[in-house]
Fold this protein.
Amino acid sequence: MAPSRYSAFPTRDAAVQNLPEFTEITPTADISSGAYGARSKCLQRLIRLDMPVPLSVALPFIEVRAIASGHRPDTRALLEAFGKYPLISVRPSAETADWGGPGTILNIGMNAATTAHLAATIGKEPAEKLYRRFVQSFSVEVARLDAEAFPPGQSLEGALAAYEAEMDEPFPDDPAIQLLEVLRSMARAWEGTTARLLRQAKGAPAEAGLGLVVQRMALGLGQGECGSGVIQFIDQATGAQQIKGRYKSQAQGREALTADAGALYLTRDPRGESLEERCPELFAELLAHGARGRIGLREEMQIEFTVEDGALRILDAVRVPRSARAGVRVAVDLANDGVIPREEALMRVEPQALGELLHPQVDPEGERDVFATGIAASPGAAMGRIVFSAHAAQACAAQGEACVLVRHETSPEDIRGMHAARGVLTERGGVTSHAAVIARGLGVPCVVGASGLAISSRERTMTTADGRVFREGDIISIDGSRGEALAGAAAMLPATLDDGFATFMTWAEEFSDLGVRANADTPQDAETSLRFHADGIGLCRTEHMFFEDDRLTVMREMIFADDAEDRRAALERLLPMQREDLLALFEIMEGKPVCIRLFDPPLHEFLPQNREGVRQLAEAMDLSVSRVNQRIEALREFNPMLGMRGVRLGITVPEIYDMQARAIFEATVEAGRRGAPIEPEIMIPLVSAKREVELVKGRIDSVAAAVRAESGVDFGYQIGVIVETPRAALRAGEIADHVDFMSFGTNDLTQMTYGLSRDDAGRFMGTYVQSGVYPEDPFHILDIEGVGELLLIAAERARGSKRGLTLSICGEHGGNAESIAFCRTAGMDYVSCSPFRVPGARLAAAQLVISEAPERQKATLSQWIARRLRLRQGDRPNEV
Ligand code: PEP
Ligand code: MG
């Protein structure tokens, strides 16, 4: 390398003096994306694939950083390779293409001499136009002058004069100086605060480096066929193979390249022939490069090209940006074509992105009039008229009208309205509040905790923080993936489960070693779970079966019963309803395991919440309004979630669990008769003491004995607990003696460990996370340090008492990739989550196995299986 001619300026650190300032990109040059960036590496691959890439020179991160801090690179030496009239572009090359970088600067090297030289081949006018464009972009992008001083119709002389007037010196003529200024400006732009924040938001580390690529311009101007364009071979929305792109011919203006059903079909400017028709060989060459690029780069690439006098030049290639749906399809197609292994296909898709695929989405390209933001509680997009009550939602749905239910917060009474609504928006709540859990279960897009909204159910208005007023009937859209509420009907992309998705899920199943079940309460949920390949139901919240109109009334009669006799009569009416519901679930699940949780919520949740409701109930039960109010008052608790609910209700009012156990066993007998045999799993909620389990188990066993005797049919069943109080976790050792399984209810366990209301935390969670009090919302991502420790203690103690005890998680964390990693390491047998999160959970589990593969290869298969078995039987994870 020639010594720097700018030795008066700071030079690079002594430590890096020996590294080249720049390297020509050749097939054998020592270029890595970690030192030179993804674009430089990609260009080297294109060159290795024999693509006609113009001469390109790469600057490493270390050089660009030195330039940003004042080092003056030897641009004269760099330009030597580009000949007497160098004409070049500089492009950014970050380590990962997604991290962006400053904009490309084209036509560096234009001056009076180059213009005269070029005029001989491409003509005077186009040459001057290039010069003027360069002066303008240099002035605005590099010298940072006001764009208004360089309007589009300006002449070359005008642009040069404007530069001189602003800068008090003539426009730099020397290509080496021009290049120096461009490099310096791009290097400094990368170090700026805005650029830094933007790339960090995309996951780049704070110290991420920028490389630069200096490339000979391939102008696409001159005699014969000349032009420039981009081409890709998939549709970015669906991932289907399709030729798309655009090409601007120097002679004929803009053409569009598209294809129908894979057949090559060109739409073109009506004034002329298409590129394919004019230059069939060149077009075939372009397609051949595309095919070679797909295999060589193992990716679907968008190729930027020019045509100069009938000769093709490939300037650059970038990964085609794509929707989640297209991402899955491309991964499957690449693996099916043998371009990448299946493991890699599985690793290329984010588990969270699968959720996107299963729901319609707000079109990211469409306009967004966001009027409120909150917590993204249930993914997908919905559009409809605003309604402020569950009743109005049902009325709307009955007329076939789409609606969005807007509430302060939801309660069990709203479930039917949530079913009927396309989307839900609440002012309060967090990721495990009622609205969030139910919406995810139903697959209804939902935004909760949209604080700043003032909702008046009486006036039927919703007022935003900046005073916009929405009324019942106005159309709004919900983006449950981003946590945004939008005014009007936002543009949407439909949900689609294509063959690619089914294949992808089959591969994920092959690779995962952790069971994935669904939290499903209704036949509809069960069907969705099966569609998403769930291994079974890990949590059926039976109380949800009592919110249907006919059941709710009987349920209320049960709650209002004056004595055990009346209560039993009401429960006898509930029994066949519960039995039929469970039978339907068992039949749909076709022998797959179903875990049924006994009644959990406080009874008052079933009582009417407003005056009209009380009046209707009084009418239905032939009671006075004041009698109903007295009963409601009597059931009122200061802390209902810590009060008479779950097993506490089961022990104090044992007839409820007796009825449920009988419904489960009678449904089991009937399912067996109908050819869908099942061994039900019965789960006791909110346990905190082993005696609770002994008492409930004793009664369940007697009901089972009675049903066996009455039916003459033998059947098996399992009894377990949901561990959701800290005490249950600590006493898991003695509780384990009485149960067959334990499932961690991490929603309540998180609530109780933190002493943090899952229904109210949304109000301050944002501030808490922003201030770094919590690293994440612990209702969303399992708190490994605190709740996680309780979970490990419980797992260790439980399996210490009973080796091989089945352990699982059924809180919402069961659908979160990071939490799943922890559960797997803790030796759990399965995770259970909302049906729509099952595919993402399965993929997360498969990815864990795949990323362990190198470690696994060190052990023989039998050693590996033995390790996993030991873990499942109770060994502490850190021994593995
Ligand atoms: C839990 O608490 O984690 C749980 C699964 O139960 P629920 O959300 O119904 O309280
Ligand atoms: Mg719970």
Notes: The longest helix spans residues 564-589.
